[in-house]
Design a protein that fits this description.
Blueprint: H1 3-14, E1 18-24, E2 32-39, E3 45-52, E4 69-76, E5 81-89, E6 94-98, E7 101-103, H2 110-122, E8 125-132, E9 147-155, E10 169-174, H3 176-183, E11 189-190, H4 192-204
Length: 207
């Protein structure tokens, strides 16, 4: 069998999971737990608990065209710096280094959400989208949440005046050397996407 035919067969086989039962276990506004019983590709019955932004998750429906959230990777065109944020995260009990991010409102375009979130969290204005990822997943063992990475150019002066009351954010602008130094600082907490992008930026000096 040709390698690409074998690969397609593996993909087809991976789509044969049968959902036997799906139950919503909590009732909160933005995030809920669901329990699922399913039969896997080996015809073995199993169970799983996961979190979802949706009130009606569809685990076998394929990729969603609209992500749950956006993550903005902003490069300041005037200062020639990569923009990140240092934000307090309750589950971590401390500050995490990451990128501006937020949920996509119903009916909202991803780029519109990215523009809004960038301004709300950093006071900066998005002026040009360089590229955008499809919906991707970073914690699929725990949640079906999808995000779209929006690489963009921005301008303006940093400000946190538009932060929500629950947000504790510091805006940071990094040179290539700054990024390398941050990555080599012990005991800091990083969002996984931020760590990967900072590693590339520290080497190449561009996003």
């Amino acid at each position: 069998m040709y390698p690409y035919v074998k690969f397609l067969c593996l993909i087809k086989r991976s789509l044969t999971v049968d959902i036997l039962a799906l139950k919503k276990e909590t009732n909160f506004t933005h995030l809920n737990l669901f329990s699922m019983r399913y039969r896997d590709t080996r015809d073995s019955e199993k169970s799983w608990i996961f979190a979802s932004r949706s009130n009606n998750p569809q685990p076998c429906a394929g990729n969603t065209p609209v992500p749950d959230a956006v993550v903005v990777v902003p490069f300041h065109i005037e200062k020639q710096r990569l923009v990140i944020i240092r934000e307090f995260r309750v589950p971590l009990g401390g500050y995490q280094y990451g990128f501006p991010a937020g949920l996509v409102d119903k009916g909202e375009k991803s780029v519109v959400a990215a523009t809004r979130e960038l301004w709300e969290e950093t006071g900066l204005t998005l002026v040009n989208v360089l590229r955008q990822s499809p919906p991707v997943y970073s914690s699929s063992g725990m949640t079906d949440e999808s995000v779209s990475l929006v690489y963009a150019e921005c301008q303006g002066e940093p400000s946190t005046l538009a932060n929500e009351a629950s947000e504790d954010i510091e805006v940071i602008m990094l040179s290539k050397e700054d990024a390398a130094s941050l990555l080599n600082t012990p005991d800091l907490k990083f969002d996984v996407k931020t760590w990967i992008i900072l590693s590339t930026f520290a080497t190449a000096g561009r996003i």
